[in-house]
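Shipment paperwork, digital attachment
Item: protein structure file
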Amino acid sequence: MNTVRIPEILLPAEGVDMQKWAVNACDQYTSDENYWKQVAEITCGTPSAYNLIFPEIYLNDKPEQRIAQINKTMREYLSGDVFKTVTGGFILVERATQSGTRTGVVLAIDLEDYSCAAGTKALIRSTEATILERIPPRVEIRENAPVELPHVMLLYDDETNSVLNSVKRGEVLYDFDLMMNGGRVRGTYIKNPQEVTKALYALTDGERAKNKYGKNEKLLFAVGDGNHSLATAKTCWDNLKKSLSKEEQKNHPARFALVETVNIYDKALIFEPIHRLVKTQNAQAFLNGLKTSGDAEAYIVIEGKKKKIPFNRDIPNGIRELDGYISEFLNENGGEVDYIHGENELAEFTKRGGAGVILPPIQKDDFFRLIICGGNLPRKTFSMGEGNEKRYYIEAKKI
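Attachment content:
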């Protein structure tokens, strides 16, 4: 396999204020403009990743102007003294948050080995259905950019922690507090990337897969965060490679995407279910028509009060059934559905009307089996941590 690659990583050069450099993922706080206004104020007049990304809250606010300015700033940073290059290794990222310290490895992956298509057998797969209409505006942002900054997080299945146990640490590359309550982050050079790569590839052993998942099928990484960003990178590469010779395609930088890889069993990686809020004037009718069964448990919430209901033990199929009923109900009765992360938040919303459904979580030890045996999970099945725990932009790579 040649899926994992050793990239040339761009980091802020000495003298750049790292706390002002690193900013949260662009797809966070999409309803909280005040958050991004505060980030803009903090980073004003200084080199920052904020000047190189497109916060999605502004996707409909003069996007052409913002994209042009982003690309201009990228070129200025590349030609100036903003970046330094780290070569020959990976980066070990230790991120302290309220959930604990999450440990990841920043490396590059071959986009030829990634697919978001339903039923794919690719080594790197999406975990939830990709919304195709979300790709074109993101392609416009990326297609002429000379640099990428990743918030993509890929998960691998390593109960014995063999990958991180293989890491040999080098120098500490950065260690600082993140802005906007993001916790603290430390990046350490990994000086034995070949051994780490070998440990990752060992996770796809056929006999191991058969024993663990009941199916001899290779799956190296499942996308935890940033699926639409990775799908955009893939689309841009597929468009670009049509103009390249076979030889040029082999090592073109746009073929490889920078990502952070995290063990799904990391104790600080918290899987939270995303609950359903049905905004309707007739919550009782919704409840009367709701038919669920199974030996798992969920809860219906009306006027802030919870009532236990049975739920399919196969949670993805249970969610598909629920989403199908919600869609039918809204088509007949009007209203809309929203997706809520916390149980308490959902209960508070239902005090204003509507009906909520609290869903059970997917267990980590079942996650890869579900992807291998059932394909993409339903949209909005799970979330990894809170908004301030998402990946901050620090590393970059030329594309």
